[in-house]
Amino acid sequence: MHDLKSSPYVFNTNAGTFDNRSEIVNTNDTLYTNDYTVDSNEIKVLSSNHLKVISQSKEIKSIEVYNILGKRLMTYNTIDSKQ
Q1: Cys-Cys link to 44, which of 35, 54, 59, 66 (CB 3.0-4.6 A)?
Q2: How far apart are CA 83 and CA 70, in angstroms?
Q3: Which of 81, 82, 63, 83 is nearest to 73 (CA)?
Q4: Are 62 and 79 in contact (CB under 8 A)?
């Protein structure tokens, strides 16, 4: 185990492919939040040629769009609307 907050992790290895050499483990609940839960009927995301997000009751402040690898693609700020 190595705490990445304390210092970078550096290592030496032989040439080759090692698919299971390392893993990242979260050991606390910092990334977990239960402050805001959304009913599955509350928010609708529609897409055809463009993305449309609709909230049934609360105003949307901002939207961040990520790809499947976790890379942020777009950020929409100051929406302040239900759509």
Answers
A1: 54
A2: 24
A3: 63
A4: yes
Model pTM score: 0.46
CA–CA separation, 32 vs 36, rounded Å? 11
- Rounded to whole angstroms, the Cα distance separating 76 from 62 reads 5
Among 63, 39, 41, 40, which Cα is nearest to 51's? Answer: 63
- Token pair, residue 54, equals 């609709």
How far is the C-alpha of 72 from the C-alpha of 65, rounded, in Å? Answer: 6
